[in-house]
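Note to self: keep these together.
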Amino acid sequence: MKIQAINDNNAAPASVSVKSSNKGVSFGSFMAAATAAESGPAAELAAYAKMTPAQRMRASVLSSMGLKESDLANMSAADRQAIEEKIAAKIKEKLDEEIQKKALKIG
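Structure:
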């Protein structure tokens, strides 16, 4: 019976080839691509699902006014205050309507 050596020193060494198609690409660019991938409709739905009911109301009112939170952030303090007052009034109206509807259902 002949036993072969597992480590044959006469055998040609196996060549290991590491192909790096990402050579020169930074971690930051990977993160930017991942963040961009998270900005589609699925990401918007996930963000909406994480909102509280009050945040959803606010987002709805802002949307009906054709605004976003970033728009508010870029306004002057006086303009922003005026919009915030309109938002509060519209939210109050919606809440009052909901209370009226529930009161009619009960009574």
